[in-house]
Amino acid sequence: MKNFDGTGRLVRLALRRDRFTLPAWVLGMSAFLAATTAMFQKQYGSHFALLAADTRIVVENPGMRVLGLVTGAHVGGYTLHRDALTLAVLAAMMSVLAVVRHTRQAEELGREEMLRAGVVGRYSSLAAAVTVTLAANLALAVLLGLAMMIAGQPVTGSLAAGASIALVGVAFTGVAAVSAQLSSTTRGATGLSGAALGVAFLLAALGNMLGAVDSAALRVTSAWPAWLSPIGWGQQMRPFADDLWWPLGFAMPATAVSFGVSIVLARRRDVGRGLLPERGGRAHASPALLSPAGLVRRQQRTTLLGWVLGMLGFGLVFGTLSAQIKGLEGGATTWYDAFGGDAGLLNAYWASMMQIAGMAVAVYAIALLLRLHHDEAGGTLEPVLGTAVSRLRWLGAYAGNALAGATLLLLVFATAMGLTGGQALGGTASLLRDLLGAALVQLPAVGVLGAAVVVLITSLPRWSVGLSWALAVFAIFAGPMFGPSLDLPAWLLDLSPFTHLPDAPAEAVTAGPILGLGLVSALLAVAGVSRLRRRDLMLPA
What we know:
By secondary structure, the chain is an all-alpha fold. The chain has 24 helices and two strands. The chain is globular.
């Protein structure tokens, strides 16, 4: 057991380092599930006919079954269909980032070498990282279950729901442990795990799309590909319908095997190195890398490509749903009326989809801008500023790439939705024009959030990451998609920039809200730049 000496102390060290990060992940996901469950409980709790109608819309459409498994007409199950995929991906990301942070990143920064100079075993850091991450997933399972119980859902189903999400996090703990041994860099290990997550999503989605629908069109039985995916294992627990616990038996053995494989791989490599060969770079750099903007663009192009593919896929799927939305009648139209107004069902649907796209793109822009903080805290900013690059130029490089990337993603989503929607309904050219305009309307709200993040990074650098994501969550929940359903007061709704956007294409776009949000963005940006020019850099210890 000499190889595991000091594991307990490293667990305490990891808990100390993650005392804010992991609780923020767990509490944030639990609050999100509690709020959306309460929203659907209020909307469907006493309207079973409406719930059954909306459930049939999902069941009968293979495109919507991509988002999750439908197990019947019950509020908890309907909530999971809307939220489970998002929460499963977040649980997997939480696990991957935690394991990589305490293993590969520690080696990359030289911490692991310093630790091993003491009485610490060869595999102790890996064992500590896995232990802490599994504990975080256990806490996540309990709190997610409590969140649904507080929102009025049955106890057994709520506990099964929490466990089904945490199951995905547990499985990807093992995936991250293996990835950290294969790649020599933090970004590479995270990328390998992300690729595995993408494959898991595709298998689960394919299994649900090819699944069998029952005679009442309220329940889907997944096809075999879903059983090859950790996300599919979680869905097969079927909370609030069958409450099956035995699919948990897939996750723990898979994680144990992955951990064993990671130990074997760790034995075959040196500290700071991965098993996969590193690719040699070009002899001469591209001229595009001679500017800060070009360097940022090069660093985030893979991430942007992933987002483009995701927005393209969702745009194609949501566009194909236009024909079904047009055929809705009666109470089933209430959902879209509430989100998009009464200017026409299809226009209301398209407006609500553009709002969702705008919120998603805001997440992309915030993640990119937070690289400003990582550059500063990681020590890579200081040598950059030692050249002819000014602080303002460095900030402008990130801001420009965030704006360009957000614009590209919105246009890709609108184009994909317009093409498939136009094929389903006719009039592709006019629909494309309307949707492209509606997509660009979302940019001022993204700009306000991005400028606010810059202010946080320049004014409160140590707290900027947590505060920025808290700001994003607040803006989404207080926005038009969730705020009115949660009965939030008007003054709180007005604090979200998304509240002030016109519901294009359901409503005419006026200049007032656009100019107002643009002015707020400009004022915040000026405040951020002013603060950045006057403060000292936060250098790594």
